[in-house]
Write a sequence for this structure.
């Protein structure tokens, strides 16, 4: 069974340019997460989807970041315009979802490493 | 606000040693606690998940314990091997809007020398 797929794996852009990341979760997983991981730090949640609905986007900087999950499957995270401080790894994860706590293990993709020059 | 701390930040041991990684959290109102492994340039792999009602979980050479009242968890690795070299992250599943929300520690970078 394929895991969580992310593309691109690496992206280098100049500041003020737009950038987009794509995620394909594990088949059948209703919950999708986008995390930001800075160097030497643990991942921090940006947004969580339950099917098509963003149920927790409190940590998403909405002035420049946006996300969508059309049809409740694939998701795209966009930054426009990118700033120097956005350089980080962007991780996507998915889980079966629909449970309040419990055994909802999250499965992570390999991430997209963004460098903003 | 939940805060998760991991000690030590880095650890270097010779092959064969038993070792303990520590994780502490400030808010005991948790659903569960997970330990993840992260290899350089790769995503996270879940190693063990302990429900809030459990005291420990075991998988092969790994044993994780949870003391919710004191806000602590340990990951014990027996007979360490060079292939265990990675960063180990502790994550706490808190009670937020009824769905699992993970708060991660900063990780322990482990190096096991042959």
């Amino acid at each position: 069974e394929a895991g969580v797929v992310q593309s691109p794996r690496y992206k280098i852009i100049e500041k003020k340019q737009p950038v987009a990341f794509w995620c394909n979760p594990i088949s059948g997983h209703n919950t999708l997460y986008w995390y930001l991981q800075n160097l030497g730090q643990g991942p921090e949640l940006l947004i969580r989807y339950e099917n098509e609905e963003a149920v927790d986007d409190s940590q998403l900087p909405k002035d420049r970041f946006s996300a969508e999950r059309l049809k409740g499957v694939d998701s795209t995270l966009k930054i426009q315009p990118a700033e120097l401080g956005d350089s980080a790894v962007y991780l996507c994860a998915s889980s079966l979802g629909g449970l309040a706590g419990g055994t909802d293990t999250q499965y992570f993709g390999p991430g997209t490493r963004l460098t903003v020059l | 606000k939940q805060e998760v701390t991991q000690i030590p930040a880095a650890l270097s041991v010779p092959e064969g040693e038993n070792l303990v990684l520590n994780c502490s959290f400030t808010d005991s109102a948790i659903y569960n606690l997970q330990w993840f492994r992260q290899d350089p340039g790769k995503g996270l792999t879940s190693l063990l998940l302990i429900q809030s009602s459990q005291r420990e979980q075991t998988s092969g050479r790994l044993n994780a314990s949870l003391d919710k009242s004191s806000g602590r968890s340990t990951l014990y690795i027996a007979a360490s091997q060079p292939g265990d070299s990675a960063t180990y992250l502790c994550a706490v599943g808190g009670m937020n809007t009824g769905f699992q929300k993970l708060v991660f520690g900063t990780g322990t970078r482990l190096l096991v020398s042959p």
